[in-house]
Specification:
Layout (H helix, E strand, L loop, with lengths): L6 E6 L7 H15 L3 E5 L18 H12 L2 E9 L2 E2 L1 H8 L16 E8 L3 H16 L3 E2 L4 E4 L5 E2 L2 E2 L2 H21 L3
Parallel strand pairs: 1-2, 1-3, 3-5, 5-6, 5-7
Antiparallel strand pairs: 3-4, 8-9
Length: 189
């Protein structure tokens, strides 16, 4: 039995304090902690990074720390608002920094379970975002957990870390639980 706690990195949100996507992500990470995981949240403001530049020597301290944590991660949860039918540029740019992991022994998200949350006003946008996050995960060699969460912010509200819809809160917890459980199953010392 592995004595080390799984390390789960959450990435998402917007630059707006208290955004729905960031609060949903925080709920997921809080639940992961209740299952024994160590977590780190990279909220919207922490993801305000320069546009990714693949030339050597162009990393900032913040982008370097993100890559260090992603390399260490046993699981990942991505959350994005729907901006004009897709994943936010803020999150996509942060994900682009995983290119720094291209030559690692464990490249990109390889072998890591990844959960996804899409948030938007209406039904179509959150589902589009969810699909895009799952496609990105697949392209980065991650393992999409079975449940992804699409949240219609016209109906579901977040306030002070609490979700107004019990069913959505349960979905967030179930998805986070899948990330933690798969991470525990796949972990190597």
């Amino acid at each position: 039995m592995n004595a080390r706690k799984p390390f789960i990195v959450g990435m998402g949100g917007t630059t707006r304090d208290g955004s729905s996507s960031e609060q949903a992500l925080a709920i997921a990470l809080k639940y992961a902690e209740s299952m024994g995981a160590e977590t780190k949240l990279y909220g919207g403001k922490a993801l305000t990074l320069p546009m990714y530049d693949p030339d050597p020597g162009n990393l900032t301290d913040a982008s370097r720390q993100l890559i260090i944590d992603l390399r260490r991660a046993d699981g990942i949860i991505l959350a994005s608002p729907c901006y004009h039918g897709g994943v936010s540029g803020l999150l996509k740019n942060a994900i682009d920094y995983t290119e720094e992991m291209r030559a690692d022994p464990r490249v990109y998200f390889d072998g890591r379970p990844v959960g996804a949350i899409g948030v938007g006003f209406g039904n179509q946008g959150p589902n589009s975002v969810l699909l895009q996050l799952r496609q990105i995960t697949h392209a980065l060699r991650g393992w999409n957990v079975p449940l992804g969460v699409a949240i219609n912010s016209a109906d579901v509200k977040f306030k002070d870390g609490v979700c107004s819809a019990e069913g959505i809160a349960k979905q967030i917890e179930l998805m986070a639980g899948q990330v933690v459980q798969f991470a525990k199953n796949f972990m190597k010392d």
